[in-house]
Amino acid sequence: MADYLLDVGATAMCPHSGQVSISSSNTKVKAGGQAVTVLDDTFTISGCPFTIPPSKPQPCVKVQWLVPATRVKVGGKAVLLKTSTGLCLSAEQIPGGPPNVSATQTKVKGT
Questions:
Q1: Tens-place pLDDT, residues 59-73
Q2: Are 5 and 110 in contact (CB under 8 A)?
Q3: 36-46: per-residue pLDDT in tens?
Q4: C or N: which end of the chain has fewer Cβ atoms within 10 Å?
Q5: How much is the average pLDDT of 35-58?
Q6: Which helix (H) or strand (E) holds 103?
Q7: How far apart are the C-alpha atoms of 93 and 50, rounded to whole Å?
Q8: In the chain, what are the domain boundaries?
């Protein structure tokens, strides 16, 4: 199903309200004035308060995207959509749940 392309200015959080920051390798294709994200871009999380169990806190530190767009590519790499499936991970690769993308550009859609 078509949805808006995820851009570097998007607002996203881990399930525990940690803020996602996006660094894109794409410098050529923009939507809404911001670079469009691709599958292998860097999505880091800061401020995740998840500290259970207390003996070994596992806050989310990055997003690993699992299902990108199937038909749209930038530089041969699949782009990400607002509804793409991802997983927030701790430093030890322990899953913390899916990211929540609450806002992105609203001009370009893809599938």
A1: 999 999 999 999 999
A2: yes
A3: 999 999 999 99
A4: N
A5: 89
A6: strand 100-103
A7: 14
A8: 3-110
- Report the CATH architecture of 3-110: Sandwich (2.60)
Cα gap 106→44, rounded to integer Å: 23
Omega cis (within 30) before 49: no
**Diameter of the chain measured on Cα atoms:** 46
Do the bridges between strand 3-4 and strand 109-110 make them parallel or antiparallel, or are there none, so unpaired?
A: antiparallel
The rounded distance, in Å, linking the Cα atoms of 16 and 32 is 28
Cα 60 from Cα 90, distance rounded (Å): 4
Q: Burial of 41 by CB count in 10 Å (0-12 exposed, 13-18 middle, 19+ buried)? A: buried
